[in-house]
Amino acid sequence: MLLSCWKRVIPLLAAAVLTGTGCKSPEGATPAAAQAPAAPATAPAAPAAQAAQPPAAPAATATPSDPAAVLGGIPGMDFSSLSPAAKRELATVLSDEFCYCGCPHTLGACLKQHTPCKHAKRMARLAARMVAEGNPATEVIVSLSQYYAGFRDARSQFKVDERMCTGNASAPVTVVEFSDFECPYCGKARPVLEAFAKKNAQQVRFCYLPFPLSSHANSIPAAQAALWARDQGKFWQMHDALFEHQENLKPEALPALAKSVGLDGDKLAAVLKSEQYKQELEGFRNQGRAAGLTGTPSVYFNGRGIDLGFIQDELLSHSLEDELEWRANNNAWAAD
């Protein structure tokens, strides 16, 4: 089935994207409920029994009459840069949403009464970012609920190749990226993800998994070249060269890229005429399908999918902090 490049803008960070772009894979991801068992895990799966969940949020109420009273007096937090309209929306979020860290209080009450709670502060910063982008409180509350629900959902499990990973092999968080060398959005995400992985190398193991899209004529030859270079001990060098020459990844151009990283271009040319890596590439694609992948790039923190809007340094760091807290507390949020 043909695959196509795509661009989508869905306001909110829910299961799709905050404001993201990507190359779509419409061949149909396996529904989560019907996913076949994946390969051995590189990250712990969520347990069947989860920690007690916060009480359901109350029905939306009118915007607080005095947003300043709701937003003021919160230690370590300053919302003065928000517009008046954004402040009203954020005040509603803090008044109507719970903080998810075990206390029976709203997010706003937790921020003021339980100042050691780091989780509430991260939630508030994320909500502030969303209202600043024009999202109304009702949508922000739904999005926060969906984002945090993602931590309780069953995690995808991946079989990775350590030769295509960077960082600490025993890091508490494994970040997996499914990517296509010819996808322009993968090219844009690449420097952000790599800088994040480098900055957090002790806490993050970053692994690349190829997912060549059939809509990109040269994606399969490019992926074959990357796997062949891996077998010669130069995966990352070829990975970088392929992304740096996205505009010309025709099979006849790839031997020159191999030579530029110190490999035998003639040998690569022979490999490209064979189907040496066909089965392995399909195995990577099957892992992505089983995880519900809908396009590239797709990124997972310990098997938990994140939306494309999170491929920004600040939001990647936010999700890493959440993941570390969740893992440190045996798949639960730290008690308030």
UniProtKB/TrEMBL annotation:
Keywords of the record: Disulfide bond, Oxidoreductase, Redox-active center, Signal
Tell me the ranges covered by the Thioredoxin domain, including all copies.
Answer: 117-277
User: Out of the domains of life, which is the source?
Assistant: Bacteria
Q: Which InterPro entries match?
A: Thioredoxin-like_fold, Thioredoxin-like_sf, Thioredoxin_domain
List the residue ranges of the region (Disordered). 29-64
Instruction: Identify the Pfam families for this entry.
Output: Thioredoxin_4
PROSITE patterns listed in its UniProt record: PROKAR_LIPOPROTEIN, THIOREDOXIN_2
**Signal peptide from the UniProt entry:** 1-16
Q: Which PANTHER family match?
A: DISULFIDE BOND FORMATION PROTEIN D, GLUTATHIONE S-TRANSFERASE KAPPA
* Protein family according to the UniProt entry: Belongs to the thioredoxin family. DsbA subfamily.
Q: What is this protein called?
A: Thioredoxin domain-containing protein
